[in-house]
Design brief:
This protein is α/β, with parallel strands linked by helices and 422 residues long. The protein has twelve helices and 23 strands.
Amino acid sequence: MTVVSRHVRRLEAPLDASVRPPGSKSETIRALTVAALAEGRSHLYQPLHADDPAAMAGALRSLGIDVITDTEPWSVDGGGGRLTVPATALDVHESGLSARILLAMAGSLDGVSRIVGRGRLPERPMKGIVDVLRAQGVEVSGDHVPIEVSGRGHLWGGHIEVDCSESSQFATAVMLVAPIMHEPCLLELVGLSGSAGYLDMTTSIMRKFGARVERTVTGYEIGNGGYVATDVVIEPDASAAVYPMAAAAVTGGRVEIEGLGENSPQPDLRVARVLEAMGCRVHWEDDRVTVDARDVELQGVDVDMSDAPDGSLALAVVCLFARGSSRIEGLGSLRHKESDRLEAISNEIHRIGGGAVIDGDALVIEPTELHGAVIDSHGDHRIAMAMAMAGTRLADFSVSNPDVVNKTWPGFWDLLDSLATG
């Protein structure tokens, strides 16, 4: 079998660019969900055109929602919580967030729904949301996709305990569906150790559509008044923004990230603050952030990234070009993604001659003499994009199975080429 790879062009000069990343995957999927449950027509401006949101939009169409994604803006005709039992399986492709949300939505239907996926999704944990459904009296066939959900026409609500030790997405799924439950929901979160910022994103989207969401000591209190259709502008994706930030850091350059400011709720913007701790100059405005590494000698860092684990992959690559060792803590959740990202990033760092040691849920990076190589993307968009940042400094560097980036950033390689040519 022929292995396809993509050459990464080394930047011959320090990066100096302004980049607007594509729309946030997390916000786009959340907004699609809430718009489908709202009463009336909503519009989504600047959404993410990529595989994961497309899978969610397709599943919503199977639930009887009119979703139009071939125009700008996207339009969603919500049914006020009234959904149709799907005649065929809901195929979420490799989208874990979509799978978890659709499991919760399926619990509110009067009939049987089947959720399926592909790639590594059947291995990813679903028990956190499955346990909630079972506690609400819903029959569920198993703890991993493919899963059949036998809904009873509604979820009751009331006091709901969600185990978030494996993923905060279980809480997000329950929260998004809570406004159409029979009773108000008192949500208690158990085992949430990181990624709380994604729940802030969830509450922000819910409130834009008129839901009542109040933070409590142990979770959230959510009203059952439903949603009202509205128009929303999707922020650029902070998880994508970390790659041009990393490129600026490793090339000793400068990048301005458009559309993401200091008030954004997206957790991966924390990467900019860590780069500042490593020596970069970081300037925040309401609608942009600039990372400037010109005339900077990067320093190693000891940091806990449990609240932004995906961003830690690009950060680990930056640490290869720093002075001194680095330690990145709080990465246990990376084991349950499109790949075992902790193992994958360690393997690929070794492949280019770098030092990486997994210590429990931490990654220890030792800068060494690096060289080019053919990187294994492990079928994971974030491994491909993070490791590509090393290619902005190294010759003879390529990434196998490069099309995996289509999951969240179809134009990634074109952007990287444009940065290399100035």
